[in-house]
Amino acid sequence: MFDAKFQTFADSAAPALGTARLKLLREELERRGLDGFLIPRADAHQNEYVPPCDERLAWLTGFTGSAGVALVLRDEAAIVVDGRYTLQAAAQVDTASFAVVPLAETTPERWLETHLPAGAHFGYDPWLTTVDSEQKLRRAASAAGGVLVAVDGNPVDAVWRDRPAPPLAPVTLRDPALAGESAADKIGRVQKALGEQKLDALVISDPHSVAWTFNIRGGDVNFTPLPLSWALIPRSGRPTLFIDARKLSNAVRDALAPIAEIAEPVLLERAVEMAAAGGATVRLDQATAPALLAARIEAAGGKVSNGVSPVALMQAAKNAAELEGMRAAHRRDGAALARFLAWFDTEAPKGGLTEIDAVCALESFRRETGVLKDISFPSISGAGPNGAIVHYRVSEATNRPIRPDELFLIDSGAQYEDGTTDVTRTLVVGTASAEMRDRFTRVLKGHIAIARAVFPLGTSGAQLDSFARQHLWAAGLDFDHGTGHGVGAYLSVHEGPARISKVGTVPLARGMVLSNEPGYYKTGAYGIRLENLEIVVDGPVIEGAERTLLAFETLTLAPFDRRGIEPALLTAEEIAWLDAYHARVQAEIGPLVDAPTRLWLEAATAPLAR
């Protein structure tokens, strides 16, 4: 289930096959009276990872990246991808049929506005399009003099003859000791929030939030234990869980029956219409809810409240049981990571290791815990210049040897039933240059600044983000990604709504788990990222303090590579933090590993000498 897989460009549909499929789609569009159609890389829930039956973009174009949008017109077509995927898209797609358009140059909406012929009817699937995206498309089509048309039934599905069936992974119940709160109590909290916000009902369109609310998990997508499902929660009365009944055993159904009605997903539209009748206000999650549901609410005479789901903040603030599970998962994962780091230190200097070798080895150490459910995302394993590609995904085509006197960046995570992990370490193979040590230490200083931060209740991630950048800024350097994202408890490794970034406006709250991952990337040379997960906890009690203070507790337990550190650049306080952290790693991880790894760990966590 979780064997490492490395995609090659040849794994996708050959360009000629993609061209044939484009012809089939255009014929289908002509039958429907459409002049064009939008194909996003999305499912009805806007999931980060989608099941094979929703990989319409890959089927049509051959492009297998995780983000992209195709726009097909009668005489031309384009695929818009971000900077991570311009080279991959050009290799996988028939560029004679599809123009590969970098997102930095134009958005899908701008492309549509400049290419859609006047009077043309451009179709989109309202199940795969959010309200905000639909509005942008409508404005673009109107500006071009065209008409935006919501289709009934996706045209791609009509010509995708061997489309996989929807997933039917069994649903499991969350262990009450790990959940820490009953589903009934969670539903009660959600209904209280609906009353406070004067909402009559909530549609939960994000399966992560459905899983959290009802204390269930599944296996319908890779890397995240999701049961694809929906829920409708009224301000009062019984909620309804919309899920394919074939996923439910009798035991699971019996456990859910006392707290919710269970219905097939095909009944969702009608239920939403009934909830909206009489002018009721229904909240839709603006990030995940399909535009089709907004149309159904308005057609029934209801009012759409398009905003943040109240479940999101509840889910983000973990309770004591969830946090204890996360701590246990990180101790277990730290032991596996220590075994990998010790192995790497022995094998890398010999030569012969590749990026794929490293990923396979790390995954094997995690698998040997006996309780690994899955990896939490495709591992990023970048040697030398590949480490400078922030979202690099190693493939058989790009697999690079790990060479002496280079940096190696490994960003990976695991799913255990008691918690989700995400950790990045940058490792020195041989000897690091003075420049490498300078950059590594500046990144480490930023990491320590976040880990040591004390801040008032109500502080947002945007207010903390510069802590991680200040020492890079002092040298005229920076990194072009956020400093941290939220992480779920045996759910998504990328969880909202809070984050540490320049645009992170949500206040941080006790119990949130966020990553702390500043970096530096020198194109064509090397990349550095140092990532731990942090829990937001109560801050120190300070005499005379006028504000309630918060701070971070570090979850991740893994040594930083001392060979990358320039001690002269660290302050006494930073060295004290690093030594204390390493002493904690040794104390908590040392008893969990074999004797050779323990010896390696003792050296790796020894106090840093100036």
TrEMBL record:
Residues 549-608 form the Peptidase M24 C-terminal domain. PANTHER family: XAA-PRO AMINOPEPTIDASE 1. This is Aminopeptidase P family protein. Belongs to the peptidase M24B family. It holds the Pfam family Creatinase_N_2. Residues 21-144 form the Creatinase N-terminal domain. It comes from Ancylobacter polymorphus. The keyword Protease applies. GO terms for cellular component: cytoplasm. Residues 324-536 form the Peptidase M24 domain. The lineage of its organism: Bacteria, Pseudomonadati, Pseudomonadota, Alphaproteobacteria, Hyphomicrobiales. GO terms for molecular function: metal ion binding; metalloaminopeptidase activity. It comes from the Bacteria. SUPFAM superfamilies: Creatinase/aminopeptidase, Creatinase/prolidase N-terminal domain. Gene3D superfamilies: Creatinase/methionine aminopeptidase superfamily, Creatinase/prolidase N-terminal domain. CDD domains: APP. Keywords: Aminopeptidase, Hydrolase, Metal-binding, Protease. InterPro entries: Creatin/AminoP/Spt16_N (IPR029149), Creatinase/aminopeptidase-like (IPR036005), Creatinase_N (IPR000587), Pept_M24 (IPR000994), Pept_M24B (IPR033740), Peptidase_M24_C (IPR032416), X-Pro_aminopeptidase_P (IPR050422). The keyword Lipid biosynthesis does not apply.
